[in-house]
Structure prediction request, 337 residues.
Amino acid sequence: MEGTSLYLPIVILLMQCSPSVPVTVSTNRHKVEVREFSDAVLSCMFRTEKDQNPRIEWKKKGKDVSFVYYNGHFRGPFEGRATIDGATVTLHRVTQEDAGEYRCEISAPLDSVSLGETNVTLKVLVPPHTPSCEIPSSAVTGSVVQLRCRDQQSIPPATYSWFKDNQPISPPRHANATYLINSHTGVLEFKAVAKEDTGRYSCLASNGVGSPKMCEGKHMTIEDVNITAVVAAVVVVCLVVLVCGCGGFLLHRNGFFTREFASSVVREPLLSINRYWFYSLRNEKRLTSTLFSPRPPRLIHQQDTEEGPMSTTFLHPKSRRTSNTRSHSCSEKLAFL
Prediction:
């Protein structure tokens, strides 16, 4: 009995000297996943050393940290659609804009460690929407054909499966299969389509959130190559090339494309032999050349201005086509017979 009374003061002294527990903050779910337009509970639990009325704050991280709950009130877009119980916050009818990382902060000025915090990440899940499908209406045998299916809004990203005539198309089981299916990108590719690939195709998008969605089917027809049409097209192209070539040759022969004749200064004829007139020409590059024709060109109009070069208009001797030339250095008028 005397021994017990001897140890009692020592126990009391040790209890008084033991360190106190500072403020601690925790959560029972660091990652929260909820469907869009449902409620999200962001839990936050704390324990203080002395302060019985700590300050509770919720913040959302982004490009800038913004307040969710501060000084006893919800802020910004959370005002009127969030509630708090202790330090646990419930967001009502969450959307994609609510997704992100949140931080619960507890400030206890009377404690030895006055600040504690914990983080909660919110992910908002979006069920599949009706995917957009790109299905060609027709193709020729032997060609490479791709059918595409995509849902841009589902979270997590959807996976895709294809159907032909309302029957699922199984993924290829061997390397030399005639088609490929990428369930992540939604692409169905035929390496070389055949007539038996004709049918009505549709695509199903699913991501485990809500009901899968299917796009409206579309019929694809595979046709044989029309040899007659190909040959006819080749013949038409050849005829067009032939006609254009002949026309260009005739125009060139008649002087239509003669650049020297259109851009040169025509001097008076040097001499005439067997009804062919020879002219001395000087083009814009100051190169001397010779032009001959059965008849000399007939001058129609000539004007010498002070501001610029002389303008000369003449009639081509063969095509009876008028042409305009400008001389950058002319001091004398042209003389024609």
Summary: Residues 227-253 form the longest helix (27 residues). The mean pLDDT is 77.
